[in-house]
Every structure is written in C-alpha cells, then in structure tokens.
Amino acid sequence: MIPSQLPKWFARGFEWFCKAELFDELQGDLEEAFQENTKTYGAAKARNIYRLEVLKMLRPSVVGFGQFHSKFNHLIMFKNYFKTSMRSMMKSPLSSFINIFGLSVAIGICLIVYAFIDQDISIDQFHENKHQVYLVTAFADRDGEVLQYGQSPLPLATHMISDLPQIKKSSRVQDINTVVKYEDRVFHERIRLVDPDFLDMLTFPMQWGSPETLNDPTSIILSNDMAIKYFGDLNPVGKDLLINFGNDKTKSFAISGVAEPFPNAHAIDFDFLINFDNIEQATENYDEDNWDQLIAATLIQINQVADLDLVIDQLDRYRKLQNESNPKKIIKSVSLVSLADLHMVSNDIQNGISYGVRKEGWVILSIMAGFVMLLACMNYINIGIVSAAKRLKEIGVRKVIGANRRLVLVQLLTENVLLTSFALLFGLFLAYSLFIPWFNSLFGRGLELVLTQPMLWLFLGSMLLITGLGSGIYPALYISKFQVVGIFRGSIQLGKKSLMTKVFLTFQLVLAFITISGGVWFTQNNAYQANRSWGYSADKVLYVDVPDRSAFEQMHAAMSQNPDVISISGSSQHMGHRVPQITISRPDRDFTVGMMRVGSNYFRTMGIDLIHGRTFEPHSEGDKQMIVVNEEFAKNLLLDDPIGEVIKVDSLRLEIIGVVKDFHNRDFDHAIQPIIFNLTDKDAFRFLSVKVNDGKQPEVYQAFREAWMAHLPNTPFRGGYQSGVFNGYFEYLDSSAEFMRALAFVSILLASLGLYGLITLNVSGRNKEFSIRKILGARLSHIAKIISTQYVPLFTISMLLGAPLGYWLIQKLFDTVFAYHMPMNYTGLIISGVFLVAVLGIVTWVQVRKLAKANAVQGLRTE
Fold this sequence. Notes:
Layout: H1 8-17, H2 20-41, H3 43-56, H4 69-91, H5 93-121, E1 133-142, E2 145-149, E3 152-153, H6 156-163, E4 167-182, E5 185-194, H7 198-201, E6 206-209, E7 219-222, H8 224-231, E8 240-246, E9 249-259, E10 272-275, H9 279-282, E11 294-295, E12 297-302, H10 308-313, H11 316-325, E13 331-338, H12 339-345, E14 349-350, H13 359-389, H14 392-400, H15 405-443, H16 454-480, H17 484-489, H18 499-531, E15 541-545, H19 549-560, E16 565-571, E17 581-585, E18 590-598, H20 602-606, E19 610-613, E20 626-630, H21 631-636, E21 646-649, E22 652-660, E23 675-679, E24 687-692, H22 697-711, E25 719-721, H23 727-765, H24 767-775, H25 780-789, H26 792-817, H27 827-853, H28 856-860
Parallel strand pairs: 2-14, 5-10, 7-9, 18-23, 20-22
Antiparallel strand pairs: 1-2, 1-12, 1-13, 3-11, 4-5, 4-8, 4-12, 6-9, 7-10, 8-9, 15-24, 15-25, 16-24, 17-18, 17-21, 19-22, 20-23, 21-22
Helix pairs in contact: 2-3, 4-15, 5-13, 5-15, 5-23, 13-16, 13-18, 13-23, 15-16, 18-23, 18-26, 18-27, 19-22, 23-27, 25-27, 26-27
C-alpha cells in the first residue's frame, strides 16, 4: 500500500516500471529518505525530492515493468488467440459466414427492440422542468369502476395558484377545432389555447420568435410542421393568420414564434398556440367561475419536488368545490401526475392530453427478439461443433505442449467472443442502415440509434457478453474435455451421436414452428378483419364535415339532385369519429355510454339494422324525448325487453323506443361500446352522410367535392368514403403482418442453417461409411434416407411440442391485442409443418449432392 504522504502518481509509476526483484528494496529506501527529508525540509520539499529521485530511477538496470510483466504475457497469449481465430475463420469461410450472419441478424432485431423501448421511456424527457410540472387528474366512479380523468374544471388553475404558495406557475389547456386561412390556403386545424406560462413550464425550443409573446391575445405560435405547411422554408414571424372559430366568429392573429421540430420521443405537442383568453370568443356560454365546465387539462409547476406532499394535502378542497357544483358526477379524489411519468400512465387516464406507451408492445417485441436470438445461438452451437471437429488435432497439440482444459476453454471462448464482436458490429450496421429504417417505414415510428448514447454501448456490451458466452459455452466445454490420446487415436467421433446438439436443434425447430405459425395466423387475421362486417353499410356511404346548418342545407340540396344518391342524413356525431361519453343513472349504479345525436334518416342512410321497436319519425318533436340503443347497451344494463324503459340522463328522462344491431364505431382493437341515439335538430348537424348506388361511389364523391367548391369555396373540404375511416388501422395491421412474416422468414433461415450444420457434422463424421456404401453400390436415395431418418424423430417431436404451444401463445396474443379476431384454426400449424419438412428435404438433398460429387476413394483416405 502506498503511504498517503507520498506523491501518489509518482509512487504508482515507480511500482509499475520497477523490476520486481528490486522493487521492495528500492521503494523502502525511497520512503525512508522521504521521511528524513520531511523532518529536515518539510513535507512540500520532501515530495519534490521524492519525485526527482523517482525520475532518476528511469535507467536500464531498474526498469523492468515489475509485477506487471506477467500481464504482458497474457496480452501476447490473447494476441495468439486472435491470430488463431482469424486463421480459423479464414479456413472455414462458409461456417464463419453462417455464424456471423445469424448472430448479426438476431442482434439487429434486438436493437430494434432496444430503440423501441428507449424511445418510449424517453418521451417528453427533454423538458427541463419535467420533475416539477404536474397534470391535475381526478378519480371518479363510472360503471362501477374507479377511473382516472385528465380533464379538470375551468377555474381550478386560477384558484390553485392563488391559494397555494408552493405553486410557481400554472396553465390551462383547451383544444378547439377551427378553420385557418392564409391567402388562398385554407385548412381545418386544431388550435390549443394555453396560458402564457405554458412555454415556460414545457420547454419547447423556439426556432423563431419568443415564447413571451403568448401574453398577447392577438399573437399565435406555430409548430415547425405548420410553418412549413403554410409558408414553406420562409420565416413567417410577423405574418397574419385568419382563424374562424365557427358561428361567424373570426379573428386575425399575428405569428410571433415558430417552435423547433419536436423530438421523435414526444407525446405532448401543438400545431398552433394562442392565449387562453381567446376562449371567450372561441366557445359559447363561457363562464370562468363555472366548476361544471371542463377543459382538456390543468398543468401546475411547483417550486421544488419537496413541496409535492404539501400541495397534495390541499387538493381535497377543490374536489369539494367541484362536487358541490355538480353533485350528479361525484369526484372521489384529486391527484397529480408528474410530466416525467405522464407518458407511462397515460393509458390509464381518460381524456388525457398525452398518449401512453403500450407496454404489451415491449413484451411482444422482446419475446420475438428472444426467439430469434435463441435460434441464432443454438444455430451457432451446432455450427461451432462442426468447425471444432476439424480442429481436434490442433487442440490435442496444445494439450501436449502444456495447455490444460482451462486454457483451452479460455481460447475457445476468446475466439467465440471475437467472432461475436464481428457479428455485433455487423448487426449494428444492419440495424442502423436497414432494420430500423424498415421498421419506421412500416409503423411510422421515429426510432433511432444515437451512437453517442452511453446506454446504447452498455446494451451492446451486454449483448456481446451474453451472446458470446451463451452461444459458445457449450461447444467450448464439450470440446475442451477431450483427452489427447483419444484425439490422436481418432476414437472421438463427433458425427455419430450428440444428444445435446439434437436437443438444441429440436428446441430450435419448436421456436421456428411457433414463429412461422404466427406469421401465417397474423396474415389470416388481417384478411378476416378486412372482410369483417362493421355492422352497417360502410362501403356505400360518403360523408362530409359541415361547419353549420347553412352549409348542411346547401350540400343537402345539391346532393338531393344526384340520381345516384339513395339517401341523405345529418348528424352531430358520425360513425368512425369521436363519440362523446355521457353518464346515465340507474337505480343500482351509473353507466358511461356513448351518445350520438342524429337525424331521423340516419339509420337508413348508414344501413344500421333495427332489431326491436322503431326508429325516429321525421319532424317529430315528441321523439326528441326518445332514444334508440344498440344491443350492447341492452346487454350491459341487463335489459331483456328494453322497449319502454326510461333512462335518466342528467335531468332528462328518455324512453327507449328501439334497439339496433351492434356496429363497430371504432376499430377492432376496441370492444363495441354501448351507444344511445337521440334525435336532434339541423342546427346541431355537423356531418352530412349520403348513401349511393353500388359502384357509383367515385362519381358521387367527385360530385360531392364539386358541389362543396361551388357553395363553400372558403371552407376546406373534409370528407371521404366511409369505408376509409379505418384505413390507418388496417395499414397498421398490414405492417404488423409483414413484420411477423419477416420474423418467420428469419426463423426459417436460421433453422435451415442450424439443420445444415448438424447434418454437415453427421456427414463429415461418417465420411468413410458413406464412401464404402458408394463403392458397394448404394444408391443416392438410400444414402439420403440414412441421413434424413435420424432427424425425422426430431421434426416429429418439434411439431408435437410446437403445435399446442404455438396455438396457445398466438391465441393469448390475439386475445390481448384484438377485441375481435379470427377464430383460431390449424392452417398455421399445417403450413409450418410443410415448411419445416421442406427445409429438411432441401438440406438433405444438398448434402447428398455433395456426396454424389465426392470421390469415394478420397473419402477412404480421410483420417
């Protein structure tokens, strides 16, 4: 141990370069001289003298790198291992390619999973105040379940910042649909109203302008995407936008800032930001003291994290204020969610401003990547033993000259880690240049690998260690145990019987069987969902979003003259679009249901089938107190005969007059929700729907657009085919199926390589036997039968294990992801079995072709 008084770095340097046999004596002399000099000259001068004496020791008689000399021997040893590994790889280029390619593909897929999870956990972490900013949420009992809601009362922020000194800043958030116009560019846009502190709390970097301009009610801040949409690459600061809030309410805003492009890992963003005070003009019946009026979110920023408990203790007073304002919708508690954690829990928050991560996606992708990695590792094991069979004499020579099993084991593992390093680099290249761009194009994700990120290199190092040891430990242990006598006598027959390699191959085939089956079933499920009925005539309906009654009546008059239009209807809400949720009261408990306000002709236009009762009568004022419900509504409320039942909605009592067949208002990931229909006036119509003759959809759609341009040239057209409202969902399904098919292809490829290695091992170990059989007149078909026969039980076992396991796993996956999926069948199992049998046949044929071309006499000379 170095005394604390000595100059540390000089003392360690002397220890490093001094010869081992001289070190103790010379170090003792130097320390003794240092103690004497300290007494005579003081500590500071003694240290300088010590440094000078150490430098004087740098002479040939002293320098020898002491106790570190043996470490250089280790470096020489590993240098030798490196050369041996490179020679081995060059001698067996095919085996080396198979090993490196298989592992690199598996590592590349694992890097997709890493990038996927890394992006999810990084969402909104770029905000500087993420640990001090909180979203105010409320818990309420709905449908017998306590749910968390992201909406909050309009006056909440004002009261909290005035009541609680621990709160530094606050911002109300509300989103509204508007029409934005700049010169001849007119678009429907969603604008976010916020308080001026919003951009201080959420630190979005600005490309142009200043966030302080939000204090001006006539200023507007754009996202980078919106700036490009309206102005291209020009700086738009200072230009004016005209915003139509509806009901003939318009206002001009001066652009005062443009945000920089948002990071890929973000959940909270905006297109346009304006001061919250504009809500008076943007909404009707505005009352800033109305605790019953909800806004999208209330954000607060506390002074420091230590103040959080003090703030939470004061939240109950606001719960009481809200419950007093609306005793029919009781809030159980109020809570806070930090911005740093919001994206992780947003899936549990109803009507939140942030989207949540789907952790089941983490699990599914990790399992798939694990499957591929296991396939690659077991493939490597089989190929590794094949390669080692050609190096038995080399291992025997090493043992003869003194290498024990431990050194041979270290050599083999070192070679394996080296090969895995090449695979790691190639896998990183594949992920960076091919796999991740392909995944992004499939799913629209902005995944990226940041090469300067320390966590990435920690992950890669872990992958190197796990893959290098996991794939190489068994071959190294298996081969290093062989005795020298057995090696040189030739009594070791690696190609005869190897139970573990057959176990590995069987497990490999089971994984491949499951993955192939999954690819088949995902493809079939896509076709099933594409052809599944939506519960109404979506393929014959066109729709358009109308701003007001006047627009509805003009479009209604224009389309009524088209001979291909069968039926026209209006509605406040529309199929495939957001349906507001309301609470209905029953004697036992309250229920949350969707409510659609429609015209009397809506059911006929949409092709919704009536099961019981009747629908609404045209121009009937009495029917405004009636409702039509779907089957799911009657089922949830346990109504055997719902006709005539009275449902209480707030202060209204509505009678059920009809029950319609269930329909899909959302995609097939979501269960059909209970919905009630209520008759409404034309003043509330915001959608116009038309049913057309079959095959005339394109012509009517073109007429739709032309009529719109003729009557409403200053309002952008927003409509389309009803059959296209779920296009994004079906594109996602197609991408998922393509991803599964790609994994199935990789599984087949890796399983084929593993089987190729094992059969090559068998054939190389029985070279003399097959040569003798050829000389004695054996036909190639007979040799093929001998080669393949021992693998038939392996394939049989893998199918018997893989079939029920794959069926169970995919069914569980479907049940987790889809609310409605195809009935499971055996097609996937049959196709998987055919693929694997075909692989066995092809690999066997390749080996038989090699034997056919080989010289039998040369085979007999093989030692």
